[in-house]
Amino acid sequence: MKMLVEKIEQKFDQEKVIEEFEDLTKDAGKIQEETLEKILEQNRGTEYLQQWGLNGKTDPQTFKNCVPIVTHNDLEPYIQRVADGDLSPILTGKPIETISLSSGTTQGKPKFVPFNDELMESTMQIFKTSFAFRNREFPIGNGKALQFIYSSKQFKTKGGLAAGTATTNVYRNAQFKKTMKAMCTPCCSPDEVIFGPDFHQSLYCHLLCGLIFGDEVQAVSSTFAHSIVHAFRTLEQVWEALVVDIREGVLSSRVTVPSIRLAMSKLLKPDPELADTIYNKCSRLSNWYGLIPELFPNTRYIYGIMTGSMEPYLKKLRHYAGELPLLSADYGSSEGWVGVNVNPKLPPELVTYAVLPNIGYFEFIPLGGNLNGMEQANSPVGLTEVKLGEEYEIVFTNFAGLYRYRLGDVVKVKGFHNGTPELQFVCRRNLLLSINIDKNTEKDLQLAVEAAAKHLVDEKLEVVDFTSHVNVSADPGHYVIFWELSGEATDEMLQDCCNCLDKAFIDAGYVSSRKVNAIGALELRIVKRGTFHKILDHFVGLGGAVSQFKTPRCVGPKNSSLLQILSSNVVESYVSTAFC
Locate the GH3 C-terminal domain: which residues (predicted)? Predict the structure, then answer.
């Protein structure tokens, strides 16, 4: 039996996976009802569900009438008891043995979220479905993937449960490696590199493994686009050291972790010919344009999450990718998965996600263009009741103890795949710049930064990274935008950028408030090179995984440690004169 299972795992049947997806989505409404019934059947005896008086009923209407819509704050006491070792059925019928940590880059501290076998199964279902559609458009052979993945340490909660970031929980699961092997995309790097304790050393070795297996690399990927850009920015700095390692067959002394050194010693052999090839290729690149296809000539595509807060990195990623297509990965969060990219040819800016109707029960709060929290009067609609072109906030119920949980994401319905909607990610609901009657989302901030950054193009400068803060300690309050630049810019140029930023926020509430000085002049603060690396290091120091790092686009007042890093690295400050 064991050999049969292994044989099944080894053979990946692409057309069968696509066929299963087509069947699921043709009858999405019925599958949704069955999924809710299954979730409620499995967990009917839980303390959480018992209190809402479902009395054994599992139909959607009773569920919606009885069980309230909640946020993480509402469920936190229950999750904490699970983490502290309470074995009674609190949120789930079967005990939860693993806790996922959200990235913590949004609110400044990670949230605890239950993780179980069902979530792992839906992760593998998403990976397989996504790969099947991707491989149909961009077939890859028996090659390797250069994956910039990093696993943070798992630790034990007070109650003895394993806790780690969602990505760590996935990478450490035996199913992950089997699935990757079945899909013919094993990682270039050994486990010791992925699970290494120092991400700087792991990154160096990921790059080294990629170069050693350069001709076998068929895909370059990471969880987020940021990690890929970060990796190749690092390559620009360390490529000569990597070439020396390959030439001599000896790993650089910068890598000190014994387990990584041992694993790499098995891969590294003196190869002067390969070293010369890499040296020549890097030397003749113009400003590193097309670096990826030059060093990894058989790469078919670049793959990772490229929407939302990752969009600002696309310009740099395209620079490194040359003509290679950028394929956006699937849509999920630490709490669970939502949808899969079944149209991989679409560029990241247009990507949509088809909701998988069997991985959870989905509801959608209609927003009607209103992000101001006034939507409570709007009753949520079901998966098959959403309307084309409308925006919604996602509410979902999963197999791991989250019931009618507000995910905090705003999505737009762009089409339908059979009976299931195809969603475009719009923004996080809580990432709003707001002082008075103004409401600016992460997307508004991104567009403002892009508009202002055009003033830098003539000088061949770029915004390496950015974030924002609402300063309400001043009267009137004002927006503060932090930029890290790739080089030196003149005061005149940066003053123009500052004024442009202020004018680029076209929200009516912002413009009218600026005109009457109810909101003060926008401030642009330039930080030292490497400041956003310090933020990344700080995040990793708190136990986060690089794979899950997202630069927070708006730093709230509670995130004092981040504000301290930013403020202590400011080198220049400019105040807008746009409304004077």
Answer: 443-556
Contact 321, 293 (CB under 8 A): yes
Nearest to 66 by CA among 57, 74, 75: 57
Residue 181 in tokens: 């092997």
Amino acid 474 reads A
The mean pLDDT of 265-271, rounded to a whole number, is 92
226, 245, 243, 22: which is closest to 133 by C-alpha?
22
Q: Kindly indicate the confidence band of residue 170, based on its pLDDT and cuts at 50, 70 and 90.
A: low
- Reply yes or no: is the peptide bond before residue 476 cis, omega within 30 of 0: yes
Which range has highest mean pLDDT (200-204, 318-322, 400-404)? 318-322
DSSP state of 159: T
Cβ atoms of residues 423 and 414 within 8 Å:
yes
Query: What average pLDDT score do residues 438-453 get?
Result: 86
Q: What is the DSSP string of 23-40?
A: HHHHTHHHHHHHHHHHHH
Look up residue 29 and give its two tokens.
Answer: 């409404």
Q: What is the pLDDT of residue 334?
A: 77
- Residue type at position 266: K
Q: Which range, of 212-216, 290-294, 370-374, averages the lowest pLDDT?
A: 370-374
Residue reference for tokens 């995040």: 539
Structure tokens at 193: 């590199």
Q: Please tell me the distance from the alpha carbon of residue 78 to that of residue 75, in angstroms, as a whole number.
A: 5
User: CB-side exposure of 566: number of CA atoms within 13 Å?
Assistant: 26
Measured at the alpha carbon of residue 238, what is the angle toward residues 232 and 242, in degrees to the nearest 5? 105
Query: What are the b/e assignments for 327-337, b being 16+ CB within 10 Å?
Result: bbbbbbbbbbb
Under a CB-based contact definition with an 8 Å cutoff, are residues 85 and 160 in contact? yes
User: What do you get for the CA distance between the two ends of the chain, in Å?
Assistant: 77
Given a contact cutoff of 8 angstroms between Cβ atoms, the answer to whether 140 and 218 are in contact is yes
Question: What is the reported pLDDT for 124?
Answer: 83
Arithmetic mean of pLDDT, 550-568: 85
- Extract the tokens encoding 237: 């700095």
pLDDT confidence of 141, banded at 50, 70, 90? confident
